[in-house]
Amino acid sequence: MRLFPRVGYLLVLGLLLRPGALRAQLTPAQYQQDFDYFWNTVNDNYAYFDKKQTDWALVRQVYGAQLPGIGSRAQFVRLLENALNELYDNHAGLSTNLPDSRRLVPTGTDVWARFEQGKPLVVAVRAGFGAERVGLRPGMEVLAINDVPVAQALLPLLGRCLKTIDPAARDLALNLALAGDHRTPRKLTVRAQSRRQELFPDQPTAQLEHIQYARPLESRQLGTIGYIKINNSLGDNRLMAAFDSTLEALAGTTGLILDLRETPSGGNTTVARAIMGRFITAEQPYQRHEFPAEERAFGIRRSTLELVSPRPRPYTRPLVVLVGRWTSSMGEGITIAFDAMQRATIVGTEMARLNGAVSSFRLPNSTFGFNIPTERLYRIDGLPRENFVPAEHIMSDVKGTTDTALEKALHHLQSTGKP
């Protein structure tokens, strides 16, 4: 499976603003060639058109008509951002951005919301970031973003080429609006228990623009139970050695909690299999893949099962995996694997629900890339990965100072002693 971490904002911005990067001009024919390559690649390879209301042929017409007015790299980046937004897919994106581009969801956001009975309600808040720090909590209704009423704030973020605006498109537009862009501090106007509040999650600093972790993981012992939290490092091969040494130090515990709630940027299967392999004693399938592009091209369906092999000194005590809205991509893959192998109890909220496995492509003239889901991913019994909900489901894992999911995991391990 080819999953790639979503690109960090500072790195992307640095690449975009290199001396000469914005001065390099392409000809109209080169912009047309790049746009045609982009459109055809998505048309031939995107794996989830059947779930979308996107009229991709209309995308070519609407955005292709804008090409004669494109005279700079920045303008072309914006055109492709808008075209790709027609898929309303969190797992599709460019490998570059502009200062006023929207932050990526979920990597670059700290609040998750959705429409419930017509109201835009907060359903999750990212632990340790600005939204939580200023008091945003699940259940609050979002009234306005930077003084723009929600309904109006969503309009620029809804595709122009949709046959109809479905709930998934509205929810993504809502979350993009809440994420904000890379340069504008956010002001969120919310209502809780009939009381109106104004919150400023990017003050005194825009924490989402400078996300750093002291270590790739952190661990501790909670009585006789071990706890390991992965800090968004599932794409870093150095995590494997750090995880192995940490697990060895916790080998004498009676049970283990693996916290994947801060893994929004994806990762790679090498790291994932290294982690999973420490908890099994026999080789097993852990994930199913399907390749829609091959079926569309030739009418022949192709699917595969991916295996994970045991590694030395397996941890065989009970395991609980914690997940949440910022468990994304590779974190979701690890979760459904443990669930399918019946090796862990999964505790938490819904995850990021990112679609499939991502492949990367590069424009021939502009040279920056774009990523789209090209493979469908399933639990080995055929459940789409994006539809997975933990058996031990909770509505919200953070309420004030209480970590509901962690408390439930501890209770489970202390009371049952079963995976």
TrEMBL record:
GO terms for biological process: proteolysis. InterPro entries: ClpP/crotonase-like_dom_sf, PDZ_sf, Tail-specific_protease, Tricorn_C1. Residues 1-24 form the signal peptide. It holds the Pfam family Tricorn_C1. Residues 187-401 form the Tail specific protease domain. The keyword Signal applies. GO terms for molecular function: serine-type endopeptidase activity. The keyword Chaperone does not apply. Its EC number is 3.4.21.102. Keywords: Hydrolase, Protease, Signal. This is Carboxyl-terminal processing protease. It comes from Hymenobacter artigasi. The lineage of its organism: Bacteria, Pseudomonadati, Bacteroidota, Cytophagia, Cytophagales.
